[in-house]
Amino acid sequence: MSTSSSTGTSISGIPRFTGDAAPYPGGDPYADYRGADFPFATLPDLADRRLGGAVLAASDEFFAERENLLLPGPARFDPERFGHKGKVMDGWETRRRRGGSAGDPCPADHEHDWALIRLGVPGVVHGIVVDTAHFRGNHPQAVAVEGTELPGTPSPAELLAPGTRWTALVPRTPVGGHAANGFAVRDRQRWTHLRLSQFPDGGIARLRVYGRPVPDPDWLAALGTFDLAALENGGMVEDASDRFYSSPLNTIRPGGSRRMDEGWETRRRRDKGHDWVRYRLAGRSVPRAVEIDTSEYKGNSAGWVALFALDAGGGGADPAEGAEGWTELLPRTALQPDTVHRFVLPGDRTATHLRMEIHPDGGIARLRVHGSLAGE
């Protein structure tokens, strides 16, 4: 018996996987996984559970719970694990849909399962990955993703109400089993919630929603002083010198770091240089104090740190590394391992970007930049 396993390339250049994957052959379950490097995957996952993302409701979750969709990390597969409902899968899996009669045993073309997702941080979506890892012959035939923007914390009933306007971000598109099915999103509107549909049924391991956070500006104004660099407040990592062990995005995630891989750690430098990260702050703002946290980095924390600010709000200033216009906020200062360091910044300098330099290399768990938006 043979299985269909094909790969095509869309107009956007992103691979498209279709058909079933081969049955599990034993050994490493990811050995025949169909993946790709997506250009938008360096952006934060706006649906990340660690940012507050949630699956609010689903039409069915008979075989595997909807909450698995947003778990961090790749899906796991244990070939020996079965429960009273069947094979235990690390993903969202619905029961098999059926038609209405013996003469019409297959579901109608429009019948499908769905899940409602609240983004952890509202924002502009640049790309979506519907990951069917380990769903080899039980994945959906096609998927679709829609977005909506609603204020506050709407209930599933409000999201499903007839008056709610949904916009197609990913049209109904065939997908492949045991594959990272990636889609570029061209619509540059702000979204708060997504609706993921799978036709007609099946299993999806993970959903990743890559984009740029756009929080509610009225909320930030009401806060007054807040963390200008935090992902949930609209901060972003624009560039970094090194991502060898872990992503610099980790430095602006919510909460503290519990392990080394939850921060940013660079490889050991053997030259005379240094590593750095460039951040875009939530808006044109006035940074007043910073926290630099080296928690869990005990023999590999950064040795010294320096901070620089750039105000590119008026145009003309280039935030690129080494460009003119950067001014020193914090001179090169020694850091201690496994410690939260707090520094009050001098003056009322406005900034749109911040650059953190670490000398010569090492790990930083978190960066917090406390301040307020500029008057305009």
* Name given to the CATH architecture of the largest domain: Sandwich
- How many separate structural domains? 2
CATH first level of the largest domain: Mainly Beta
- Give the helix level as a range of percent: under 10%
**Uncertain segments of ≥5 residues (pLDDT<50)?**
1-5
Content-based structural category: mainly beta
Give the termini distance in whole angstroms: 66 Å
What percent of residues are in strands? Answer: 35-45%
The CATH topology of the largest domain corresponds to Jelly Rolls
Family: Belongs to the allantoicase family.
Enzyme class: hydrolase
Biased composition (Low complexity): 1-14
Keywords: Hydrolase, Purine metabolism
List keywords for this structure.
376 residues, mainly beta, Jelly Rolls, 2 domains, 8-stranded antiparallel sheet, 7-stranded antiparallel sheet, 2 helices, 23 strands, globular, disordered N terminus
Question: What does this protein structure show overall?
Answer:
Belongs to the allantoicase family. Its EC number is 3.5.3.4. Residues 52-213, 234-372 form the Allantoicase domain. Keywords: Hydrolase, Purine metabolism. This is Probable allantoicase. This protein has 376 residues and is an all-beta fold. The chain has 2 domains: 6-213, Jelly Rolls (Sandwich); 217-373, Jelly Rolls. The protein is 3% helix and 39% strand. It is built from 2 helices and 23 strands. The protein has helices spanning 156-159, 217-223; strands spanning 6-9, 15-18, 54-58, 82-83, 86-87, 92-93, 113-131, 142-148, 167-174, 180-184, 190-199, 203-204, 206-213, 226-227, 236-240, 264-265, 275-293, 304-310, 327-334, 340-344, 351-359, 363-364, 366-373. The strands form 6 sheets. Strands 14, 15, 17, 18, 19, 20, 21 and 23 form an 8-stranded antiparallel β-sheet that branches. Strands 3, 7, 8, 9, 10, 11 and 13 form a 7-stranded antiparallel β-sheet that branches. Strands 1-2 form a two-stranded antiparallel sheet. Strand 4 and strand 5 form a beta hairpin. The radius of gyration is 23 Å and the shape is globular. 43% of the residues are buried. Mean pLDDT is 93; it is low at 1-5.
